[in-house]
Amino acid sequence: MGKVLIVGPIGDFGGTELEAGFIAKSLSSKYEVSVCSTGNISKNSEIYNCRRKFKVYTLNQLLYKNDVFLRLLAKVSYIKNNRHKDIFSLINNKIAKSYFNYDKKRTDLLNLLIPQYDLVLICAQLSSVMISDIITVSKKNKKPLVFRVTTTVKRHTISNPDIFNKVDLFIFHSQKNSKNFEKYYFEPPYLLIDQCAIKESELLRLPLKNKRIDNFFVLSRLSKEKQINVVINAFKNVSKKEGRLFIFGEGDEKRNLVNLAVNDGNIVLKGYVENSEIVNVFKNCDCLVISSSEEAGPLTALEAMASGTPIISTKVGAMEERLGDDCFWYDGSQEDLENKMKLITSMSESQISNLSEKLRRRYLSNYKISFIEKKYINAVERLI
């Protein structure tokens, strides 16, 4: 049985964690799979949402185990922090970096780790930490290297972009992102493999939408590029007395969004939603709004498609390729979003029912878990 290492800045919550877990689960049906994070993972990480036959560990956990001096420093930091922080994350401290070659030792670990595997699959942004090191060590050891790019491709992402020439295969969510890479760097060897709904079976069991739209929702990290402020301002101008806007998520912009929504009882910030509760969100909400200026997917759109939930979206990431004419596209401006909100709330029950059915049919035709799993297995088979 071949051995595959999935590596990247995998943490606790977000699309990268779900995607890395899905890829690991898919490949573990045929290969021995391990996931190594260059970041920190707690027991609450979403990577554990997958029923797994794969190992998960971090470079910092390996350092803690193998280096007596860094382990001692981490224990001291742990005590100073009243044992509230994860001890493995505390191995990354100023003293370790300044006097104990922390960064070099992490690279040295890659030199010990990567030779044990038959293929390395990076799941990360192009600019993620240690990308150059992972690529260099993989090719030095003549290991096939796959790079699953998890966000929008941009220019000038790392200081040495020529390193990307050493990647055997890139995997993009969309043709749009592959063209970005070609525009900014070079024409890469690549495959298009989109995402799928992790809670597929439960979402497909939900009844299709068949009533008029009276509430909207955002399901996203609360950060500036998600442009949730635009959604709130647009909703304020079009909402009726009984209408609601639900915002699910956490992030740096939460305080600003709370202030923006203050004194409006129709706007409800619900906080972070566990992946186990995602199905209930789509069951109880009418229309998903994706307002982002930057995405590779997003995953929430495929969950909406599986559940038959109508979508208003910017033309971001893989959205145009996924949805064609079965989406209410808006140009990112508040005025245009207001227009689309008014349009979708004016639709009849039969129109909503037809749209809901078309969305689910699109999902079943192109994005079922079984389809996506097979694409990953075929991609790895080509290189091992």
Would you give an account of this structure?
The chain has 384 residues and is of the alpha/beta class. Helices cover 42% and strands 15% of the residues. A seven-stranded parallel sheet has the order 3-2-1-4-5-6-7, sandwiched between helices. A six-stranded parallel sheet has the order 10-9-8-11-12-13, sandwiched between helices.
Q: Spatial order of the strands in the main sheet?
A: 3-2-1-4-5-6-7
Beta-strand level of the residues, as a percent range? 15-25%
Main sheet summary: 7 strands, parallel
N to C succession of SSEs: EHEEHHHHEHEEHEHEHEHEHEHEHEHHH
**If you compute it from the alpha carbons, what radius of gyration comes out, rounded to the nearest whole angstrom?**
22 Å
Number of distinct beta strands: 13
First-last Cα distance: 11 Å
> What integer is the average pLDDT?
91
Shape: globular
Alpha plus pi helix count: 16
Coarse structural class:
alpha/beta
Give the proportion of residues in helices: 40-55%
Q: Could you write a compact summary of the structure shown?
A:
The chain has 384 residues and is α/β, with parallel strands linked by helices. Helices cover 42% and strands 15% of the residues.
Helices and strands in order:
Blueprint: E1 3-8, H1 15-27, E2 32-37, E3 55-58, H2 59-66, H3 68-80, H4 94-99, H5 102-113, E4 119-124, H6 131-140, E5 145-149, E6 169-172, H7 175-184, E7 190-192, H8 200-205, E8 215-219, H9 228-238, E9 244-248, H10 254-261, E10 267-271, H11 278-284, E11 287-290, H12 299-307, E12 311-313, H13 319-323, E13 328-329, H14 334-345, H15 349-366, H16 369-381
Parallel strand pairs: 1-2, 1-4, 2-3, 4-5, 5-6, 6-7, 8-9, 8-11, 9-10, 11-12, 12-13
Helix pairs in contact: 1-16, 2-3, 2-5, 9-10, 9-14, 12-15
